UniProtKB/TrEMBL annotation:
Transmembrane spans: 152-171, 213-232
Family label: Belongs to the alternative oxidase family.
Cofactor detail note: Binds 2 iron ions per subunit.
Top-level EC class as recorded in UniProt: oxidoreductase
Official protein name in the record: Ubiquinol oxidase
Gene3D superfamilies the record matches: Alternative oxidase
Coiled-coil ranges per UniProt: none
An annotated GO cellular component: mitochondrial inner membrane
Membrane-topology annotation of the record: Multi-pass membrane protein
Record organism: Artemisia annua (Sweet wormwood)
GO biological process, any: alternative respiration
Residues noted as binding Fe cation 1 in the record, renumbered to the chain: 155, 194, 197, 296
């Protein structure tokens, strides 16, 4: 009885395995058949599409790319449910910038005295003044009267001191459990303002690969050098920046002269500049350079003031910081 049962079980399993193998063979043959059909269809499609316009063949991929981008956007906006409330300009139109908000914008004070100069009085002042004058020589040789390029490159340097000074004061405030008197904010505001100058200039001048390389090198050297100078002598560091800003006022005045003479085309102002400085919609490059020059004059005052406080043997926090000074 047991042998009969065992034989029938064995027979069933042989039949089943035979069926399975047959089914597998069928699947493989179907798959091979389908694959060959697919390959042939694909070849036909490719030969016909090669004759067609490239734009029609790219259209689905472009659409897919755009859909992917939209999906990514949605992912970014939905992360942790954080979303930005609708921000508008004064005229009700939608605010287009994420990098700054309407409350960061301002109307430049153009009545500032552009000719002010701090006469070097002592060794530190003279050292700072001569250092800046020395730094101007390679700048003049390299850029000559290419003021667009010159301004763009110099703004990459100008945005460093405020950040270094602000960062060091921030760390000092933490170490000493002391208020900064608003100076951290004032110096970081300066760095941000200089960075906005750069963001404006790159809309007008596209940096070349060797200029980007130069920025990398100069930033590496200047950041570290300024960091050490600020640690050793903040009064020297602020005086150097004060003189650098005097040079910046001079450079932008020359820039304006070239716009007025027609040597540089007075193109329309970039949209970012119109919103940041609350300029009229038909503003031009001349208007932009005029407000940037006024900013540099304000930075000149802030830094000479900071240096003077140190010269009086006081700390910055003892004098009111010029927060929001434009
Ligand atoms: Fe600047
Ligand atoms: Fe500046």
């Amino acid at each position: 009885m047991n042998r009969i049962l065992a034989n029938s079980t064995l027979r069933r399993s042989v039949i089943n395995s035979g069926r399975t193998m047959a089914a597998e063979k069928l699947l493989v043959s179907v798959s091979v058949h389908d694959f060959e059909n697919f390959t042939m269809r694909r070849r036909r499609m490719m030969s016909s599409s090669s004759a067609a316009e490239p734009t029609t063949s790219k259209a689905p991929s472009v659409k897919a790319h755009e859909e992917k981008k939209e999906e990514k956007k949605k992912e970014v906006f939905s992360y942790w449910g954080i979303s930005r409330s609708k921000i508008t300009r004064e005229d009700g139109t939608e605010w287009p910038w994420n990098c700054f908000m309407p409350w960061d914008t301002y109307q430049s004070n153009l009545s500032i005295d552009l000719s002010k100069h701090h006469v070097p009085k002592n060794f530190t002042d003279k050292f700072a003044y001569r250092t800046v004058k020395l730094l101007r020589i390679p700048t003049d040789v390299f850029f000559q009267r290419r003021y667009g390029c010159r301004a763009m490159m110099l703004e990459t340097v100008a945005a460093v001191p405020g950040m270094v000074g602000g960062m060091l004061l921030h760390l000092r405030s933490l170490r000493k459990f002391q208020q900064s008197g608003g100076w951290i904010k004032a110096l970081l505001e300066e760095a941000e303002n200089e960075r906005m100058h750069l963001m404006t200039m790159v809309e007008l001048v596209k940096p070349k690969w060797y200029e980007r390389l130069l920025v990398l090198t100069v930033q590496g050297v200047f950041f570290n050098a300024f960091f050490v100078i600020y640690m050793v002598s903040p009064k020297l560091a602020h005086r150097i920046v004060g003189y650098l800003e005097e040079e910046a006022v001079h450079s932008y005045t020359e820039f304006l002269k070239d716009i007025e003479s027609g040597a540089i085309e007075n193109v329309a102002a970039p949209a970012i500049a119109i919103d940041y400085w609350r300029l009229p919609k038909d503003a031009t490059l001349k208007d932009v350079i005029t407000v940037i020059r006024a900013d540099e004059a304000h930075h000149r005052d802030v830094n000479h003031f900071a240096s003077d406080i140190h010269f009086q043997g006081k700390e910055l926090r003892e004098a009111p910081a010029p927060v929001g000074y434009h």
